Amino acid sequence: MTKLAVFASGSGSNFQVIAEQFPVAFLFSDKPEAYVLERAKNLGVTHYSFELKDFANKETYEEALVQLLDQHQIDLVILAGYMKIIGPTLLAAYEGKIINIHPAYLPEFPGAHGIEDAWKAGVKESGVTVHWVDSGVDTGQIIKQVRVPRLPEDTLETFEERIHQAEYQLYPEVIAELVKRF
Ligand code: GAR
């Protein structure tokens, strides 16, 4: 069976959708106060949390992550709102096994504010992308993406909600495909 780990920094709504459909070996959050940890507790998913600032540098922080991933023999690392760039230490150990979801139609609007950036640019449509993680910011090979329209009556909130709904469809679809490969 493919062993999955999810990394998240925030609310964890994507984590919730994933954990309700697939067995997740563990959830990691780099934010000890993040609501995603509550979700993991409620779902009975093993969870860990530590912060970059608890370590001497990003290398030793990522070494701790690699140790966790190795210990659980993880096949696929699923980034779901994990708001840190994956550094060379983690990539060296797990490149080709890390995927990310981005709330825009890459290469349009990369970075931390994909939804707001698309909204401010006044696009008629944006989207959602799942991609492999490489050393760039949202530059890895695209696995699958979908378009999401911006409707004339949309507010930022309704637009954002439609993007999230598309994420909740797309990420499980991609994960279901990938778990067949391991
Ligand atoms: C999601 O919309 C995800 O695409 C985004 O963070 C949100 C996390 O929400 N990720 C990025 O912007 C990465 N650049 P969630 O914590 O409720 O799943």
Automatic annotation (TrEMBL):
Entry EC no(s): 2.1.2.2
The Formyl transferase N-terminal domain sits at: 3-175
Q: What's in the keyword line of the UniProt record?
A: Purine biosynthesis, Transferase
Q: Which residues form the active site?
A: 102
Database matches in InterPro entries? Formyl_transf_N (IPR002376), Formyl_transf_N_sf (IPR036477), GART (IPR004607)
Keyword Transferase in record = yes
Q: Where does (6R)-10-formyltetrahydrofolate bind?
A: 58, 83-86, 100
**Gene Ontology molecular function:** phosphoribosylglycinamide formyltransferase activity
Q: Which CDD domains match?
A: FMT_core_GART
Asked if DNA-binding is a keyword of the record, the answer is: no
Binding-site positions, N(1)-(5-phospho-beta-D-ribosyl)glycinamide: 12-14
Where is the site labelled Raises pKa of active site His? 138
Q: Which family does it belong to?
A: Belongs to the GART family.
What does it do? Catalyzes the transfer of a formyl group from 10-formyltetrahydrofolate to 5-phospho-ribosyl-glycinamide (GAR), producing 5-phospho-ribosyl-N-formylglycinamide (FGAR) and tetrahydrofolate.
What's the protein here called? Phosphoribosylglycinamide formyltransferase
Q: What is the lineage of its organism?
A: Bacteria, Bacillati, Bacillota, Bacilli, Lactobacillales
